[in-house]
Amino acid sequence: MTDKVFILIPSFNEGKVIRQTIRSLGDQYHIVLIDDASTDETANAVRDLPVYYLRHDINLGQGAALQTGMDFALQQGADIVVHFDADGQHNPADIDQFIHVLKTQKVDVVLGSRFMREDDLQAIPRLRRLLLRVARLVNGLLTGLWLSDAHNGFRVMNRQALRAIQLKENRMAHATEILMHIRRKKLHFIEHPTHIIYSEYSQVKGQRWQGAIDILIDVFINKYFR
Amino acid sequence: MTADIQFTLTPIQLLLSALLLVVAVASLRLFRNRLLYRLFFIGIVFTGILFVAVPILPVYLATKLGVGRGVDLVFYLLFTGFLLLIAVLYRRLLQHDTMLTQIIRQNAIKHHRSPGTVKKTEV
Q1: A5: which strand partners?
Q2: pLDDT at A209
Q3: Which of B97, B112, B119 sits opposite A29 (nearest CB)?
Q4: Domain assignment of residue B37, yes or no
Q5: Which residues is A83 bridged to in the sheet?
Q6: Could you tell me which residues are beta bridge partners of residue A155?
Q7: Which of A148, A158, A161, B78 is the most exposed place for a label (fewest CB within 10 A)?
């Protein structure tokens, strides 16, 4: 039996690299690009590529874009969904490996981790490594899941997890919210090593420490005030 | 024998009372179908008018409650009311945010662009 695999790529103003990222995925998956109201050339850059193109009329954030993609994938009958960053940080070769782990380990979610192999760990810039360790601590305290990594955008999940996870957190705090859903819905999960490519482009576009504080506040509000 | 009770308002008391009444009317119009909000605002305005008209009242209440001066009591009440209002309005804001997200999401899914060639997935 074949599985319908959907790669979800949330994107905001990634017009310079999005074409390259999509082409690196080959043609064996259903690719869903969720354009979060980009104001650059994103729409034109992917016009001739074989992707499902969804566009938010207003910029909502990565969490909202992922949930839009997950709702769409569910409607399209997806069996497996992959969260994949638009900026080319993730390794397409990891996809099949993660799917293999998802099936053989009989889990619902496979979470990428940069802290399980020494090479991956060394590739993380020092300041980011420190921030991630703090985020890991916050995640552990808020969700009760003590993972080796935090806020790694590379995840693979099956249809059961796709149904169970309903993100309310529109912005970057969705990563912690996913863990909360995993815990509450008693989904089976496993961490698997992944390599992140920190290019000059992705580092400029990436989160800063101020963003980490915002995420912390968002997580707190989402947990106690919604 | 009957005592003559004279109850007169100074110009500033009149002005403040009139302003509070305007706020009361505005709040009645503003919070359509929100009885609790309306009652909350009318309560604040009524208390305000009472405190303006009878300045000794907050002093008396403050002494009874042990918070010192009347102005302290007014400050504490306003501060608490202000925080409560922010919390209520913020919650409404979050609800609107959720609704807006759902509308934008449904629209994005409804008007999606499909790939020109359908890809078969076999893993």
Answers
A1: A80
A2: 61
A3: B119
A4: yes
A5: A8, A155
A6: A83, A111
A7: B78
- Kind of pairing between the strands at A5-11 and A80-83: parallel
pLDDT, residue A153, reads 92
Going by the DSSP 8-state scheme, the letter that residue A81 receives in this structure is: E
Residue of A nearest to B106 (CA): A68
List per-block mean pLDDT (blocks of 10 residues) for chain A, which spans 226 residues.
92 96 95 97 94 97 97 98 95 96 98 92 86 87 90 94 95 90 96 87 64 70 64
- What pLDDT is attached to residue A177? 92
Residue of A nearest to B96 (CA): A226
Q: Would you say residue B54 lies in a domain? A: yes
Per the listing, tokens 């009652």 go with: B39
The arrangement of secondary structure in A5-224, i.e. its CATH architecture, is: Alpha-Beta Complex (3.90)
Give the position of tokens 């992140």: A196
**Distant-in-sequence, close-in-space partners of A113: CB < 8 Å, separation ≥ 6:** A120, A147, A148, A149, A152, A191, A192, A193, A194
Encoded tokens for A76: 């399209």
Asked whether A125 and A54 are in contact (CB, 8 A), the reply is no
- Output the pLDDT for position A41: 94
| The total number of structural domains that make up chain B | 1
Q: Amino acid identity, residue A43?
A: A
Distances (CA, A) of A17 to A86, A188, A207, B117: 8, 34, 17, 22
Q: What is the rounded distance in angstroms from the CA atom of residue A56 to the CA atom of residue A37?
A: 5
**Which range (A65-69, A94-98, B48-52, B117-121) has the least confidence?**
B117-121
Of B89 and A63, more confident = A63
CB contact under 8 Å between B105 and A226, yes or no, is: no
Domain boundaries, chain A: 5-224
**Total beta-carbon pairs less than 8 A apart between chain A and chain B:** 74
